[in-house]
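User: Could you go from structure to sequence for me? I need the amino acid at each position, not a summary. Structure tokens:
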């Protein structure tokens, strides 16, 4: 079920590195080098497969941009926050 803007803003209080914009939650992470970002993307990919929920992401050298929303719900759902929590765990946030 799609969350309201107020619900999303309340949930984001637990996710200081994420922001809500353009119907999705987003974060950008900078790493030491490309090898680190690629290794982290691989770890995140395994978690995404396990959860059957996949991000929209881009990588440029040592920077990773991640956007999460649930396409079936046309917005942000608890699935997105579950994946954001898993990503934060992987990042050690």
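Assistant: Here is the amino acid at each position, in order:
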């Amino acid at each position: 079920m799609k969350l309201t803007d107020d619900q999303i803003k309340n949930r984001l209080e637990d996710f200081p590195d994420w922001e809500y914009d353009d119907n999705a939650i987003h974060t950008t992470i900078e790493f030491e080098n490309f090898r680190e970002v690629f290794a982290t993307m691989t770890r995140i990919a395994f978690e995404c497969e396990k959860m059957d929920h996949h991000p929209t992401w881009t990588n440029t050298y040592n920077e990773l941009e991640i956007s999460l929303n649930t396409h079936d719900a046309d917005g942000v759902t608890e699935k997105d926050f579950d994946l954001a929590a898993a990503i934060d765990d992987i990042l050690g946030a």
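One structural detail worth keeping in mind: The longest strand covers residues 24-30.
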